[in-house]
Amino acid sequence: MRNFIKHFVRESDGAWNCIERGEVLLSGGRIEVTEGARFTPGTIFMGVDLAKLLDAEFIRQHGHRP
After folding, report:
1. pLDDT digits 0-9 by tens, 14-66
2. What are all long-range contacts of 35-44, with beta carbons under 8 Å and residues at least 24 apart?
3. How far apart, in Å, are the Cα atoms of 3 and each of 13, 21, 32?
4. Do 66 and 10 form a contact (C-beta atoms < 8 A)?
5. Residue 2 banded pLDDT, cuts 50, 70, 90
6. How far apart are CA 39 and CA 50, in angstroms?
7. What is 16-51 written as a DSSP string?
8. Among residues 12, 13, 20, 7, which one has the least CA distance to residue 57?
9. Are the beta carbons of 54 and 26 closer than 8 angstroms?
10. Domain extent for 10
11. What is residue 59's three-state secondary structure?
């Protein structure tokens, strides 16, 4: 997730907006997103809550909630 998060910006409503195409390999498989995709907390995409994963990665990198 470390490099995957750089493809997103977090909006004030908690959603993550993809600003450039990116992909990540998770235990369940590869997930690819395209520019303009938007992920809100609780929304499942390809079996994953991407907003929740991105929030967790942000906290891991910065030590606080986004």
Report:
1. 999 999 999 999 998 999 999 999 999 999 999 999 999 999 999 999 999 99
2. 38/11, 39/15, 40/13, 40/14, 40/15, 41/14, 41/15
3. 23, 12, 13
4. yes
5. confident
6. 7
7. EEE-S-EEEEETTEEEEE-TT-EE-TT--BTTB-HH
8. 7
9. no
10. 4-62
11. helix
Q: Cβ–Cβ contacts within 10 Å for residue 4, how many?
A: 19
Domain count, the chain: 1
> Is the pTM for the entire model greater than 0.70?
yes
Cα dihedral 47, 4, 59, 65 in deg (nearest 10): -80
Say how far apart CA 33 and CA 61 lie, in whole Å. Answer: 21
Say whether 10 sits in a helix, a strand or coil: strand
Residues in the chain: 66
* Residues ≥6 apart with Cβ < 8 Å to 12: none
